[in-house]
Design goal:
The structure is a homodimer. Helix content of chain A is 44%, strand content 16%. Chain A is α/β, with parallel strands linked by helices. The first copy, chain A, has an 8-stranded parallel sheet with strand order 2-1-10-9-8-5-4-3. A two-stranded antiparallel sheet of chain A has the order 6-7.
Chain lengths: 272, 272
């Protein structure tokens, strides 16, 4: 199945627009995992088991797997996801952006070595740096548009030719980058007005929305401004709010409960 | 020594503004290395031995070390560089750009795990995503400004508030990001006019210039438009033109010769 097919299936099958950010920080793992040979993988596996009925996607952030052992634990996590919930798409958050020959190597790494369904990419260097990702019709390319961090607007909200830079990105995604129907955009929950602008310009495109929970984004505003006409279209990421819901022995059950709560809050807002 | 001290020392000590891009593609390695246990490292080691008298920096592109064994060979290469030519700065080309907490992990990976003197970063997400790099006064932060690839101008040359986006990046680098005196900018050899604009705005800032050689940039225009008043200030990267100068048994000698030739061409253009 393609990324888009999986995403559409998971939105409907799980009645959920929640994405769980698998960002395991070794220093924050529950004490109960300390004796494990692969503590990061054990943490992820428990989180996946506890949340897979309540999510539309998983998003491991590559930085949390940067050490050498951790790379192996990322590979183990990806394999576990493919085995236990092959119907849930996995977005590997790598934010790549590099010249074409290099981008091809990165695309192969994310899609073929790690087996992710989608990758996040940075558009600053333009079309030829995104093409090796976009060319893979079976995979998703999730392009940074208006990011949720405090300085996100510094370049992204500069006005050029009558519209902000992030809207140039949104329109390029709609008009030039979506030739395989596999493009998606990142718009932060912390900028609901920009979310409305992007949704208006790209009525059917999936939007990955980080920034609810720890970063302070408001779920109601995200739903009001970001849903498609059919009340879908969003991949609402929460990481710390779910994976560290408890750091006791009950961490997995607490994560499952937190994912269900966010799913239900979202569904109430969208009237589903 | 800091990145800037090493760079200034290497420019003068080696009388060279050449940077060698250590981008080893397993499929292109000379046949003579086929039997090696660590062919990528063996390739790099021979290239380093043959060029270290003629360069101002090395720049491994991280994508070429993305597989698991290759990560080890990158670490071996970094260690070899520290041992054999500790006076030459090493720029790890990772083009990172992510939210602050994640950027901190990436900065630690590049500077402390791999021990690089500098990292390349992507400014699209703004100040708080660059700060974990810029905060390291001992290390260099090399910020993408106007890139050399064909679509580089798509967003970077949009005009906002009377100047192109890449000039906003150059002025932010000068006015806000250089608080530790460790910022540098990437401007491609393929856009000499933009190079002149950036140099005018940032008279003393080091500029990393990819795109000579395989990408077609003109050395004479780079020198005319990019040097500082004292005829320095550039880190002119060549990868394929040097490391694949020959794929016979003489590959290392050929690489050394290619680096010397580029060094001399540059020095002739700058009248040194």
């Amino acid at each position: 199945m393609t990324f888009m097919e999986k995403l559409n299936g998971a939105w409907r099958g799980n009645k959920s627009m929640v994405c769980v950010g698998l960002d395991p920080d070794l220093k924050k793992l529950p004490a109960v995992l300390k004796g494990e040979k692969y503590p990061v993988f054990a943490f992820n596996r428990a989180l996946i088991d506890a949340t897979k009925h309540a999510v539309c996607a998983y998003k491991p952030q590559a930085a949390f797997y940067a050490g050498q052992n951790a790379v192996e634990e990322l590979a183990m996590t990806m394999e576990y996801l493919r085995k236990i919930c092959p119907e849930i798409p996995v977005i590997l958050d790598v934010k790549r952006g590099d010249i074409g020959s290099t981008a091809s190597m990165y695309a192969r790494e994310v899609y073929d070595i790690f087996g992710a369904d989608a990758a996040t990419v940075n558009p600053y260097m333009g079309t030829d740096t995104l093409k090796p990702f976009l060319d893979r019709a079976d995979k998703g390319t999730v392009i940074l548009c208006r990011t949720s961090n405090p300085s996100g607007g510094e370049l992204q909200n500069l006005t050029a030719d009558g519209k902000p830079v992030f809207m140039h990105v949104a329109e390029l995604a709609r008009d030039q980058w979506n030739y395989n129907g596999n493009a998606a955009l990142v718009v932060g929950a912390t900028c609901p007005e920009e979310l409305a602008m992007v949704r208006k310009a790209c009525p059917g495109m999936p939007l990955l929305v980080p920034g609810v929970g720890a970063q302070g984004g408001d779920v109601e505003a995200v739903i009001r401004n970001g849903c498609t006409r059919e009340g879908l279209g969003l991949i609402i990421n929460s990481s710390r709010g779910i994976i560290y819901a408890s750091n006791g022995d009950d961490f997995a059950a607490a994560a499952g409960h937190a994912a269900e709560t966010l799913r239900d809050t979202i569904n109430t807002c969208r009237g589903a």
